[in-house]
Structures are given as structure tokens and as C-alpha cells.
Write a structure and sequence with these properties.
The chain has 19 helices and 23 strands. It is of the alpha/beta class.
Length: 545
């Protein structure tokens, strides 16, 4: 790749996990685009799973789905939300994928009897994945985040690949950013640099010298602290950057990094024009976020509520919709099992009226736990004219609730929850009946949806059709569609290839729309998804009523 202009930026993390490598990497991507450069991003995860598709949300957070159907890390969501990059399965790499590819080649005899080793075979496969993306689309920059923490045994092959790439391409083509933690001792009010020093020492022992230290801290580093870090970590003092904890929104981070000269330092390293940063749409978004005129309370009813990242894209899309309506968003997290089923004994009315919610969203998920609580929430929203947004499992629950309480099918259920139900209004997709493997086998990625003429959803999109992303195995059962529609549940979005129900809505309701697809995956701060924008608008109107 020496004849191509693509510059590669590696982002590693030290001291501890959850420092924000994903959002800081995405923020740099946004800033570089604001300088007029074309970028792409890769997330490299050291876990041995092929992808996070079979991992528990409690372990890994949400599974983010790309347009081409890859189940990926949630950081890919940050990349797509903050930048213009259109990412695919090539942009999400795991140790499991790397070893699987190498083993498959070994089984085919591609190594001609050689002993297969971490170096060079594993590291070469890592480098191949990087160069494959770097050579696409005439990129100026490729940003690569290495998951985990320096010092973890799982990360060593990736770090060795970084070292080799820097040696092969030179500093004019490669930049190493290390995100680290500067903790403070509360009693003394003193910032401590030793953890960062040790983290950089770990990197240097591998053969990687960071060019920039992005220091996560609760307050800006003074000149004395920067000088100390610079001396002991062998990094230019100017390249020691304060990444101060943000008290408000994560969307403040790009501006904070720009004010600290992060993007300018990166461009100067490569000898590239810095120019003026031009991100007018982002500036408008930040201004609107800081100056709300209204307040809206949205209940999210799920079973992974205790973990913030389990519904990360849902929460961010709600924020986008709220800001588009100049509203300050308060999310009321409702555990469908613990709160509705157990604490309130199924009395959703009492819970939601106590919380004074303006709208209810039921997100996707799997399994029977907490389903009756979700049904109770939907029943309340339908009867009390509270705006309801159901997504994936949320649509399936809405169909079950409607079939039971409006169509009179008291036993109506999904075969996922009750295989022997008399009325399987939700059932396994035909193509899923022969599936044995769990990972990467659902109906995944972008599929077309045609909207019914005159439907609310068509009016919201202002289009006759759309492509939206999916992640499911179960669907509305075709033989019940006529009965549902005869009783008032409109199937307003249909996949034209397989005649599958993609959207249902109620016309005699302020806002009752449920989608089989996941619109949250295509919402951006500066381009909120129309369904989230309209749902928040309807919820605000509900508040005023």
C-alpha cells in the first residue's frame, strides 16, 4: 500500500477499560471530515467470539447492525452516528475472525505444511484486514481503535501488528494515539501520572511509542503536569492533551478535543493542511442541544434496563429526536419484569401515571422474561392514547396484545414464548426453521419496506419506501394479518420480496407505530431518524394535551 495516500491512526487504551476510546475515535473522525478529509474507521476487538451476536447484553452492551448485516460492537454505532462513513462487516474485526480465517487456510493446505504461528500468520491476517479497508474508496485517513487495555494478553497480536505497520510505512503514514487515565486522589486533590507512565512503558516494551497522549481526567492538566508526563513518557508536551470529563452530553466531546488542538496536532504530524474547521450542521445541533424550549419524558420498557449500553442506539436516537424538537429529554427506564410485573403487579397504569410519562418505547430483545410487563405497557398506551413506539420485539408484543384484547384471541402468543399456543400470531421465519448455528444467522441488515398509501408512516418518511436494518428470527404470521387489519391494526409497511410485515400502526390513536426493523441504527445527531423525530413531537403534544 505504499503507493496510496491513506494515513493510518491507531487508538489504544491504557490503565483501565471504558475510558471512551470509541467516542474519542469517532470524534476525531468528525473533526477530520470537518477539515475536508475522507475517512473510514475500524474497531478491532480482542475477544475470541466471531462477533458479539451471541454475547449477553450484560457482558457486551447492544449489538449494532450494519447495512450489510454484520453484528458488531456498539462503537461502530458511534462511528456511523458522528461521521459520514458507511461501514460494513470489514470495519469490525475480532480475534475470533482472525483465528478462524487462519485456521481455515491451514485446513485447506494454503500454508504448504509450514508451522502456523502468531507471528507471522496471525499478525499478517490482522494487517491484511487493515490494508483491505485502507485501499478502498480513496481514503485520506483510516482510524483504527484497538479494544481492551494495553497489558491484556488478548491484545498482544494486534499491538504487534501495529508495531509492524509503523515500521513498514514509517511515521509519515502512521500515528499512534494512546488514551489513558490520569486519576485524582480525592482527599489530596492531586492528579497522579504513574498509571499513565506504566501504561506507556507497557507500549514501549512492545515497540510502540505513542505520538499523542489523550489523557482522561476530571480537570485540565496544567503545564507542570503536562511537562512531567512529557518527560517520563517521551511524548512532546504539546501532544499531551487533556480529555476532560464531560458533565453534559457526549456530543460535547468533539468540540472539547478541537479546543485542545487535537485535530490540528494530528494533521501537523502528517504534514497536512489544517485550515478552518467547517462543521456547520454539527454546530447547529450543539446549539439546539444547549438551548431546549421544552421537556419530554419517555419511558423505555425493557429487560436490560440496568445496563446503560444495552439500548445505547435507542437512547441516542431518542436524544436526536428530542433535540430536533428543541426538547430536553428525560428517559424513564422501566424494567418490564421487576417494575411492572413484580413491583406494580401488572398495573402499568399506576407506574406510568406516577412517572408522568409523555410517551412509551418498547425496544427489541429476546426470550420470554418480562414479556407480560411489556404487554401491560402496550395495553396502557393503546387504551389511554399515550404515544407508543415499538421496535422489533416491541412490534411483536403489540401484535400479541392487540390479538388478545381486541381480536378476542385470548391464547395469542409468539411461538418463541409458547410453542404450543393455539393462536401463533408471531412465528419463526420459514428460512429460520433449518438454522442450527446462532451467530450471524438471523434476518440481518438492510431490507426494503414499502409503505401503504395514506398511512401515517408514509407521511412521516415522505417516501413510498425505505431500506431499514433488521435483527430478528420471528415475524407476524401471515394467516392472521387479515384478522388484525379487520379489527383496526393497519399493516402499513410490507417487505415486497417476502411479503413480511415491517410496520403496524393504529389510525385512531395519537401515535401508535411499531416496526419490525431497527430505525435507531440509522439515526444521526445532525440527521435524526424521522420516526424518532415524529415520536418525540407526538409525545410533546401529548404532554400539552
Amino acid at each position: 500500500m505504499n503507493d496510496r495516500k491513506t494515513k493510518i491512526i491507531f487508538v489504544t487504551g491504557g490503565v483501565c477499560s471504558s475510558l471512551g476510546k470509541g467516542i474519542s475515535t469517532a470524534s476525531l473522525g468528525l473533526l477530520l471530515e470537518g477539515h475536508g478529509y475522507k475517512i473510514s474507521l475500524i474497531k478491532m476487538d480482542p475477544y475470541i467470539n466471531i462477533d458479539p451476536g451471541t454475547m449477553s447484553p450484560y457482558q457486551h452492551g447492544e449489538v449494532y447492525v450494519t447495512e450489510d448485516g454484520a453484528e458488531t460492537d456498539l462503537d461502530i454505532g458511534y462511528y456511523e452516528r458522528l461521521t459520514n462513513a458507511n461501514l460494513t462487516r470489514k470495519n469490525s474485526v475480532s480475534t475470533g475472525q482472525i483465528y478462524d480465517a487462519v485456521i481455515q487456510r491451514e485446513r485447506k493446505g494454503d500454508y504448504l505444511g509450514k508451522t502456523v504461528q502468531v507471528i507471522p500468520h496471525i499478525t499478517n491476517e490482522i494487517k491484511k484486514r487493515i490494508f483491505d479497508v485502507a485501499l478502498e474508496g480513496d481514503l485520506d485517513f483510516l482510524l483504527i481503535e484497538i479494544g481492551g487495555t494495553v497489558g491484556d494478553i488478548e491484545s498482544i497480536p494486534f499491538l504487534e501488528a501495529i508495531r509492524q505497520i509503523r515500521q513498514e510505512l514509517g511515521s509519515s503514514r502512521v500515528l499512534n494515539v494512546h488514551l489513558t487515565l490520569i486519576p485524582s486522589i480525592t482527599a489530596a486533590g492531586e492528579q497522579k501520572t504513574k498509571p499513565t507512565q506504566h501504561s506507556v512503558k507497557e507500549l514501549m516494551e512492545i515497540g510502540i511509542i505513542p505520538d499523542i497522549l489523550l489523557c482522561r481526567t476530571n480537570r485540565s492538566l496544567n503545564d507542570e503536569m503536562k511537562s512531567k508526563i512529557s518527560l517520563f513518557c517521551n511524548v512532546s508536551e504539546r501532544h499531551v492533551i487533556s480529555a476532560v470529563d464531560i458533565k453534559g452530553s457526549i456530543y460535547e466531546i468533539p468540540g472539547m478535543l478541537h479546543e485542545n488542538g487535537y485535530d490540528s496536532i494530528v494533521l501537523e504530524h502528517f504534514g497536512m493542511e489544517t485550515g478552518n474547521l467547517a462543521i456547520p450542521e454539527w454546530d447547529k445541533f450543539i446549539h439546539a442541544m444547549r438551548n431546549p424550549r421544552n421537556k419530554v419524558r419517555i419511558a423505555v420498557v425493557g429487560k436490560y434496563i440496568s445496563l446503560q449500553d444495552a439500548y445505547r442506539s435507542i437512547y441516542e436516537a431518542l436524544v436526536h429526536g428530542a433535540i430536533a424538537n428543541l426538547a430536553d429529554l428525560e428517559i424513564i427506564r422501566v424494567d418490564s419484569e421487576d417494575d411492572i410485573e413484580k413491583k406494580y403487579k401488572g398495573n402499568a397504569r399506576a407506574l406510568f401515571q406516577r412517572e408522568k410519562v409523555d410517551g412509551i418505547l418498547v425496544p427489541g430483545g429476546f426470550g420470554s422474561r418480562g414479556i407480560e410487563g411489556k404487554l401491560a405497557a402496550i395495553n396502557y398506551a393503546r387504551k389511554e392514547n399515550v404515544p407508543l413506539f415499538g421496535i422489533c420485539l416491541g412490534l411483536q408484543c403489540a401484535v400479541i396484545e392487540f390479538a388478545r384484547n381486541v381480536c378476542g384471541l385470548k391464547d395469542a402468543n409468539s411461538t418463541e414464548f409458547e410453542p404450543a399456543t393455539e393462536h401463533p400470531v408471531i412465528s419463526l421465519l420459514v428460512e429460520q426453521e433449518i438454522v442450527v448455528a446462532k451467530g450471524g444467522t438471523m434476518r440481518l441488515g438492510g431490507y426494503h419496506c414499502d409503505f401503504k398509501e395514506g398511512s401515517r408512516v408514509m407521511g412521516i418518511y415522505k417516501e413510498t419506501s425505505a431500506v431499514e436494518r433488521h435483527r430478528h428470527r420471528f415475524e407476524v404470521t401471515l394467516k392472521y394479518r387479515d384478522l388484525l387489519e379487520q379489527n383496526g391494526l393497519v399493516c402499513s409497511g410490507i417487505n415486497p420480496q417476502n411479503d413480511l410485515v415491517e410496520v403496524v400502526e393504529l389510525h385512531n390513536h395519537p401515535w401508535f407505530i411499531c416496526t419490525q426493523f431497527h430505525p435507531e441504527f440509522k439515526s444521526k445527531p445532525i440527521k435524526p431518524h424521522p420516526l424518532f423525530r415524529d415520536f418525540i413531537r407526538a409525545s410533546l403534544e401529548s404532554r400539552k394535551a
